[in-house]
Amino acid sequence: MKLISIIVVAALAAGGGWWYWNQTHGGPVKYETSTVTRGDITQAVTATGQLNPVLNITVGSQISGNILKLYADYNSLVKANEVVAELDPAPYTAAVHMAQANVANAQAALELAQLTQKRKEALVAEHAAAQADLDAATASLHQAQANLQIQQASLESAQVNLDHCTISSPIDGIVISRSVDVGQTVAASLNAPVLFTIANDLSKMQIDASVAEADVGELENGQKVNFTVDAYPTRTFHGIVEQVRNSPVTVQNVVTYDTVISVNNADQKLKPGMTANVSVVIAERKGVVCVPNGALRFRPPDAAKNAGEGTPSPGASPAPRGKHDGSRTLYLLPAGATTPEPAQAHLGISDGVNTEVLDGLKEGDVVVESILSGGDSHGGGGGMGGGFGMRRPF
Length: 394
Hints:
It is a single chain. The chain is of the alpha+beta class. Helix content is 26%, strand content 39%. A six-stranded antiparallel beta barrel has the order 2-11-14-13-12-15. A four-stranded antiparallel beta sheet has the order 3-10-8-5, with no helix packed on it. Strands 7-6-4-9 form a four-stranded antiparallel beta sheet, with no helix packed on it. Helix 2 (90-125) runs antiparallel to helix 3. The radius of gyration is 41 Å and the shape is rod-shaped.
C-alpha cells in the first residue's frame, strides 16, 4: 500500500514538473505588450509645503502686567493703529506720578543752586567770600542741572511704559490667533509675550515648499505650480514659483531648499497652516507620441548577454526640460511575429508613467513590456509601469 502511494505521488510530481516546464520553457513565448499612443505628458517636481500668509505679524507686549481688556478675537478684521488690547495701567500711572514729583524736586534744587551760585559770585566780587566757595556753588549748580535731566529722562521712560499699556495693530489685516485672555498676566522679562498673530491679507498667500537638492536645479522663477490640499481633495489649485531660497535645510542628512510659491486665494478657501502637495511643472508636451515606461525596462533573455548593445541602463532617467539622452533600445512585436525586434528610439520628457518619443517609433507600434509565459520567462525584463523618469519622492 505504501509503495502504491509513493508511486502515485511521484507520478503527480512528474506530471506537474512536465507541465511547468512546458509552460515556461517548452511552449511558445507569450509577451505582455502595449501600443504606442499619442497624448499629453507633463514632467514635474513634487514636494510638500505649508500655506502661510505673505505677511504674518506677531503682536506682543514690551511690558508686564494683567490683561485688562481685549478688543479683538479670532478672525477679527483690524486696521493699522487700532487698539486690540489694553494692560492694567495702574502701576505705570503711579510710576509716572512719581517721576513727575522727582522732576519737580529736581527743578527746585536747580533753582536753589542757581541762587546760591549768584550769591557766591557777588560775595567773591566784594572779596567777602573765598573763591573756593564760588567753585563749590558752581559745581552744585551743574549737579542740579544734570539731576534734572536724569529725572526728566525717568519721566519719559515711565510715560513710554504707560503708553505701552495700550497695544495696537501695526497693520491692516485679520487676527489669525489670540494667545491671551482677560485677566491673564503677561511677563515681558526676557522675551516679549505674543498676544495676537495678524495676517495682512489672506486673499494672497504663499507656500513654503521643501524641495530636495537633486531637484532644485530644475526650478526657476515663474514656473507654474499645481497643488492640492486635504481639505479639498478633488480640487487642484494653482500658483507660481516666486523664489528659490539659497539657504539649505538639513534634516537627518537630507538637504532641502525652501521654495516660495505665490498663490491667489481670492475665494478664501485656503487657510494658513494647510499642507500642500505641490507639483512644479518643469516641461509639458501636448499630443506627442508616448510609450509606457514598462517597455523601456524590458530586455529579452539573450539581450542581457549582448555586451555590445551600448544602451543606457533600464532605470536611467531622461534629461529634464525635454532634452533627450540619446537613443534607447525598445523591442517591437509586429503583427504575426513571434520574436521581438529591437528598435532605436530617441526619448524626451517623462511623467513617471509614459515617456515622450522624439523619433524612432510611430503611433500604433506594439512594444513589449514583459514575458508572460513560455521560453525562459525568468530572464526577461521588468513589469509594467517601471520607474523610468519618476521624480524622487519626498
